[in-house]
Design brief:
It is a single chain. By secondary structure, this protein is of the alpha/beta class. It has four helices and six strands; from the N terminus they run βββαβαβαβα. Strands 1-2-3-4-5-6 form a six-stranded mixed β-sheet, with helices on both faces. The chain is globular. The two termini are 23 Å apart.
Amino acid sequence: MSVIVSTNKLGTMTYSHESKIMFVEFRGIVEPELAMEHFNSILEFASSNQIIGILADLTRLRGSYIKFFDFFQENAYPQLIKGGLKAHSTIVSDDLIIENISLKLKDLHKVMGIESRVFLDDEKAQRWLEAKLKS
């Protein structure tokens, strides 16, 4: 069973109770206030639900989200790791800004102990994430 954790014009976050994976889809131009609504929702949700994997589809997102890295490093990921987060898979388009920032996020994940990869193909991203969570 899946539940919508957060939704607004920037995107939707859906959680699968069965797999304990948070599915994230962002679209349009990055808007900080809308993004923070999502980030705060996931942290509130994670306080009472285990999230072991995140699959983020950023193929329709435009702009930069690098300004959130401090928040990710100091607040979001420590809480998610404490709750059981093991792996993060990101799907990007050929948009160079999003792809480069997603590769920097992958490096941050590595430093924090989260398995992470960036993909251009959603099926490969999901297969990789599921395999990482089984091992």
